[in-house]
Amino acid sequence: MNEDTTPQAAAAEATFPVGDLRFDDRGLITAVVQDAEDGRVLMVAWMNRESLRRTIAGGTTWFWSRSRKELWHKGATSGHVQRVREIRADCDGDTLLVRVEQVGAACHTGERSCFHRTLDAPGA
Amino acid sequence: MNEDTTPQAAAAEATFPVGDLRFDDRGLITAVVQDAEDGRVLMVAWMNRESLRRTIAGGTTWFWSRSRKELWHKGATSGHVQRVREIRADCDGDTLLVRVEQVGAACHTGERSCFHRTLDAPGA
After folding, report:
1. CA dist list (Å): B108 to A74, A109, B112, B115, B122
2. N or C terminus of chain A: which is more exposed, having fewer CB within 10 Å?
3. What is the reported pLDDT for A14?
4. What's the mean pLDDT in A89-106?
5. ipTM above 0.95?
């Protein structure tokens, strides 16, 4: 059997049509940003259709700020841009996984990842 | 200088108090689930306070289903439970990163990760 026709190869090539993405009732979709080099989860933010369009067109990440109600180009001020290597969609099309090359720090605190603290939940 | 007192060491030990987490106006918080072994992002789901409490107390993941409006214990039917290794919070406390040992497949399709398809966005 030609290995290009194995189920594994077919699965590896499967794609998700951008038109089938499910934005929520606010027009937003969750975007998880992961370092493409070491797999570290860097941050989670929101995209609307326009920020996704700009991200795809320009190759660096744009998000929608729910608090400021405006588009923001990650790193526009700090220089800490995220160069997009790959965008993946989850099985039901309501979450994106954006794999990036992170310049500098992803977090506004200066930490490489926004997830720099473990949850302190004694006993729970 | 004692290396235990470097800023790096302090940052590595920093924790986020569970009581400071910010649940949204629906009482939910986004949870990104990552394979603790290979760093693969497996799925994204929602937790409310009770599902987080059960997750911490029992050591396997519980979520809140927005469509079914009920708690669900991941793997209760399939056996594909997620054993929690670590829970991290992001800088502003409104997203969790749950690092797990995944038994079997995380996705209901049988794929290991829900993010098994790349986004097909020609031209954008």
Report:
1. 33, 37, 9, 12, 28
2. N
3. 85
4. 97
5. no
Q: What stretch of H or E contains A56?
A: helix A49-58
Q: Element (H or E) spanning B9, and its range?
A: helix B7-13
Contact yes or no for A120 and B91 at CB 8 A: no
B91/A114 touch (CB, cutoff 8 Å), yes or no? yes
Q: Closest Cα of chain B to A35: distance in Å?
A: 10
Closest CA to B112 of B71, B78, B66, B89: B78
User: A13 versus B6: which is more confidently predicted?
Assistant: A13
pLDDT of residue B13: 61
Which pLDDT does position A12 carry in this prediction? 52
pLDDT number for residue A6: 46
List chain A residues with CB under 8 Å of B117: 14-16, 88-89, 91
Of A15, A95, A120, the CB nearest to B15: A120
Determine phi and psi for B78, rounding to 5 degrees: -80, -20
B44, B95, B119, B120: best to mutate for the A interface, most A CBs within 10 A: B119
CA distances from residue A41 to A37, A50, B57 in whole angstroms, order as listed:
11, 23, 24
Instruction: State which residues of chain B have pLDDT below 50.
Output: 1-6, 8-11, 124
